Amino acid sequence: MMRLMRTKQFLFTFILIGALGFTSCKSQTTATPAKKGVSASKMKWSERMASTLMMRHPKAFQIDDRTTAKWDYVHGVVLNAIEDLYKTTKDQKYYDYVKGYADALIDENGKIATYEEDKYNIDMVPAANILFKIYETTKDKKYLVAMQTIRKQLDTQPRTPSGGFWHKKIYPNQMWLDGLYMGQPFYTEYTVKFENGKNLNDIAKQFELIEKNDKDPKTGLLYHAWDESKMMPWADKATGKSPNFWSRALGWYAMALVDVLDNFPKNHPKQKELVGYLNNLAVALEKVQDKKTGLWYQVTDMGGREGNYLESSGSSMFAYALAKGVNKGYLPAKFKKVANFAFDGLTTKLIRVDADGGISLTQACQVAGLGGTPYRDGSYEYYVNEKKKDNDPKATGPFILAAIELNR
Prior knowledge:
Layout: H1 2-20, E1 22-25, E2 28-31, H2 45-56, H3 73-89, H4 92-105, H5 131-138, H6 141-156, E3 174-176, H7 177-194, H8 200-213, E4 225-227, H9 247-261, H10 271-288, H11 312-327, H12 334-350, E5 351-353, E6 359-361, H13 380-385, H14 393-406
Antiparallel strand pairs: 1-2, 3-4, 5-6
Helix pairs in contact: 2-14, 3-4, 3-14, 5-6, 7-8, 7-9, 9-10, 9-11, 11-12, 11-14, 12-14
């Protein structure tokens, strides 16, 4: 009897593992989420990561480990990627997962729960990017009303004297590279689809201000932020620039350019200008790419300095932006190799296979900013000592996007 029970147990385990599929990471072999009958090792990295997130976070608002729904940019970043995966695969589960987030926060009248317009936080804009597809599919007016609410914020968002959007109400006269991604892709798609493109010049102006005031002429890289008032302690008293280059900030900027160009008309006089910015950034990024791994460091230009580390969110963002730039015809073909080299580094150096069969992208900076309380001074020591988090949404979303663009 005992022998029969052990035989049945062995057969059950064998069948279960076979259904899940095998994968390996270094010496570890474990099951991983897979399509029915498809080995995990043969799955696309985009679906492998998305399946992991959906397994661990059955409701999309849980992606950042929260228990109650919140309207937030990190959800927008990941769900925008999963929405792209739906467009690529036509697998309904991806669309349903994205729509589930919208429905958890938007009521029948289009009111967005937890959204506070009076804070003028540009980070609250990108979650609305998922609503274009949902509205187009459902024709339900509540999604349009929600988009109109977000669009209204941009009309009254405080601006620097030269016309740049403040990053937040609590950060007066400051433009952060992060903010270009947070606001401009939504602004562009909305004005093209619902306003006849009337605000395209204003969108281009946001990039022009950053290029003029925040770029380092020697490296071609852009600093994390620029304070037009030059009043912040972290700001250079002559230029207003913050002290260092942070890879994720540069990644936000790179993604902003390629995503804005999705909806920026080719015949618009400012389109070539934006493509030029992308080309200049691609050249600068290739120069500071780690030659051994293909990755980029947390503090972008200081790879050899003690404490610096190869960081996964910025590296994923660069891989995505460069690959998409080539695919769309904005960048020379050679940058596809740069993107693939980076993706190789991500999958061989920074991916871990876990006991539950899912994967984790390691070495992601959890958060970094400037000013605030406690005060963040933008120093080298500040950036390299911020906490790291595995599968941080700011890394997993761009990783999925990069995998889609590279067809990996």
